Amino acid sequence: MSIDYSERIPNNVDLAEDRRLRRALESWQPRFLQWWAEMGPALPTRDVYLRTAVSVGREGWAHFDHVPLPDYRWGIFLAERKDDRRIAFGEHKGRPVWQRVPGEHRADLQRLIVIQGDTEPASVEQQRRLGLTAPSLYDLRNLFQVNVEEGRHLWAMVYLLHAYFGREGREEAEQLLKRNSGSEDSPRILGAFNEETPDWLSFYMFTYFTDRDGKYQLGTLKESAFDPLSRTCEFMLKEEAHHMFVGTTGVDRVVERTAQLMREHDTDDIGPYGGIPLDVVQKYINFHYSVSLDLFGGETSTNVANYFTAGLKGRWQEERRADDHRLTDAFAVVPRVERGRLVDVRLPALTALNADLRGEYIADCATGVNRWNRILAGHGLDATLYLPHVGFNRRVGVFAGHHISPDGRVLDEGSWEAARGRWLPTAADKEHVRALMRPVYEPGKIAAWVAPPRNGINGRPFDYEYVHL
């Protein structure tokens, strides 16, 4: 059956006029819908109050209505093209950006798109069963909004593969639906996207920390000299902001409720009163932050240096940097472990671009921790949350294989094992959190372990019926 692309798949890439691309997507769409039915949200719903992008303009990119999830209009949008856009970095700096894939960079660009594309359906799979334990209809709606937008981001990457990479691109698009999060036989490419998201505290942490990594990865691809990729990522960043909002305000509300219970019962041990103790919140921060740091890869990378020099992938906010944007003679300071001590070493900036991006991310993550500590202070509590040392609990990069405490001490294995239960969620911690995860589907009601939001969605009140079950 042919598809009305102006209605079913809103787009600004002239799908209706491109017969070859239309046939490719007509073949791929049923497989996507089958994947969504099998691996998408497990909770049956009638419809959900969703934001749908129908154009890239101010009025069109955020259209709200109740929509059945399988009928969501997964569109394909690129930010508006700038005719005079020039390459901002690397050896081609100052030349016009590319509208086609240069042959010498074809494999690298395809790989970058596939890795980004693989993360999008992975998070949907990780969050598949969360709707069964949603703390409110407001939260349930936000979960589904994140899910459909991750699905749309998959469409965005699949469009690029189909439109610019021929048969190999089509084959890679098929593989994006065949890999599954946590699968032993065919796992997702990046480790963080094979971890479980078994509860809502994990979901808030994932959308705060891991989706924030996505923001920075998309930000580097937005600088790309391959203009269709740049424009695609620029539009995706608009939607990624909502995912991080869900995480930031979700943890806000957990901390708020935890602080209320601590004051009400005059104790840190609020588990018996139906809350999540602050030390457990800290352990979840430690885990999700450290796992997300691994997504930045090793501190040094010749591949990333080559991507930068070739113009494939820039730095975060590249054009705001006050340097020559070539980095051939620049240096950076990067931490590592030598002889059981943490030391700083001076390395060529080109090979340390992963560390540069990670530094931007760390500074951004700290803003949320400051928010959460202001909430605690507002309740008259002296307790504080923190980000652990960059080397804590790492499996990728220079800290992999070392045991670093949250305060930055290098430990032997015995000391690490003796203390890890104080720093990372234990089986008992996870069981306590899971025991709190009882669904609340009545409009205006919310689970006792989390505070209600200050505002509803799109001007609607908190007690609006965001989801019809």
From TrEMBL:
Domain of life, source organism: Bacteria
Transferase among keywords: no
GO cellular component, one term: cytosol
Signal peptide: none
Assigned keywords, A-Z: Dioxygenase, Oxidoreductase
Entry's Gene Ontology molecular function annotations: dioxygenase activity
Gene Ontology annotations of biological process type: phenylacetate catabolic process
InterPro entries: Aromatic_CoA_ox/epox, Benzoyl_CoA_Oase_BoxB, Ferritin-like_SF, RNR-like
Protein's UniProt keywords contain tRNA-binding: no
Name of the protein: Benzoyl-CoA 2,3-dioxygenase component B
